Write the structure tokens for this entry.
Amino acid sequence: GCLEWNAILLAIGLICRIGGHNSCFSIQGDTMASDQNMYELTFIVNAVLSEGQIKDLVKRVTDYITEAGGEVVEVDEWGSRRLAFPIHKKRNGYYVNVYFRSSGTLIPRLERAMEIDDNLLRYLTLRMDAKMIRSYENRKASVIEEMTEVESSEA
């Protein structure tokens, strides 16, 4: 039982020290920072809420991400749209897209917090792979390019 586990852990500890690792089991800030992935979170807010309440709800979600050690890259609010089918007898929803960097341990906690909130109709969290990140960066670059063209034509 317990004596066997202690022997196994002691052996692993010795192997780690022999291999030149001082602490195999410690989680340091540096390893967590390199372990961060890019995520896309899309959620639908109940459109019956006032504009101020919606802004407050979006701020609560982004604050939750940053307080848990994530970094919000962009918040893209699509606005109110008609749903393809009723969700909780609602026909319209306010769509929000949040792009952020975080460790994977944040996602279950974030989704649990979103599940509890009755004003959030649906949510979907995607971990962005290399192709999605390239697409996101290209789309962002084209928007910036269009904005600079408009500014230069106005001047």
Notes: Confidence is low (pLDDT under 50) at residues 5-33. The CA atoms of residues 59 and 151 lie 30 Å apart. The longest helix spans residues 130-154.
